[in-house]
Amino acid sequence: VFRQGNSLRESSLHLLQDQKNHSNDIDVYIFARSDTLLLTPVDIPCSGLSDDEIWVPSWGSWLGVNDRFAMAGSDAAKIYANKIVGYKEAVIASRNTIAAEGFQQRHTWENSPLRNSETLLKKWLLKNKLNVKQIDEWAKVCRVRGDGRINHSDHPSEIARLLNTTKLRLDKNGNLVDAVYVQAIAEKLIQN
Questions:
Q1: Residue 133 pLDDT > 80, yes or no?
Q2: How confident is the model at residue 25 (pLDDT cuts 50, 70, 90)?
Q3: Percent of the chain with pLDDT over 90
Q4: What is the b/e burial string over 125-146, where b = at least 16 CB atoms within 10 angstroms of the residue's CB?
Q5: What is the DSSP letter of 30?
Q6: Which of 78, 26, 29, 72 is nearest to 53 (CA)?
Q7: CB 92 within 8 A of CB 113
Q8: Across the strands, what pairs with 55?
Q9: Is the separation of the CB atoms in 122 and 45 below 8 Å?
Q10: Is the dihedral of CA 94, 97, 102, 105 positive or negative?
Q11: Burial of 80: CB neighbours in 10 Å, binned 0-12, 13-18, 19+
């Protein structure tokens, strides 16, 4: 989470510097995690988004905001690209809380201040008063593992559709047998 967040922040700094040297004619900023593969087309609004507006998929939010794909207006993009700042603040605040409690209170998954990156993102976006729009059945992406395998729980019906099959088989570790490598999915996306 922190490496990814730092990379996003660093790339946004270059973009902001470029905007200072040129007129800002960018209406929409698109963010996609580097470990994902987009499975479905995404319509980009022609009129752009309001400056404080950000669109995210409603799926995979895990009690927070999906952090795999987003579209944002200019001000919202700056805040989203600096989400690592919010994550760092949350970790420091949590550490201070734990120290003050003397480790007496146990946190469950439901009440943990550091539950997951999606919860941290939600807190960061709300803190910065962004207009977050969670969209159903939008921007379906699957996570890609380091060895090219895709996560079996990410939109299996979309993967099955792309591979022209009705059932996906899993191996003993829960990995897709019929769609093990990203290359198979990518080839089907290119053909379509």
A1: yes
A2: confident
A3: 17
A4: beebebebeeeeebbbbbbbee
A5: E
A6: 72
A7: no
A8: 71, 133
A9: no
A10: negative
A11: buried
Spell out the SS3 assignment of 124-176: HHHHCCCEEEEECCCCCEEEECCCCEECCCCCHHHHHHHCCCCCCCECCCCCE
Average pLDDT score over residue span 89-116: 65
CA 98 to CA 42: how far, in whole Å?
42
Identify the residue whose tokens are 């989203």.
Answer: 80
Give the pLDDT of residue 154. Answer: 77
| Sign of the four-CA dihedral 158, 149, 185, 164 | negative
Helical ranges in the chain per DSSP H: 2-21, 74-81, 83-101, 117-127, 156-162, 182-191
Q: Which two tokens stand for residue 95?
A: 């550490």
Could you tell me the pTM of the whole model? Answer: 0.75
* Order of strands, sheet of 69-72, starting from the edge strand that comes earlier in the sequence: 29-32, 69-72, 53-57, 131-135
Helix (H) or strand (E) holding 181: none
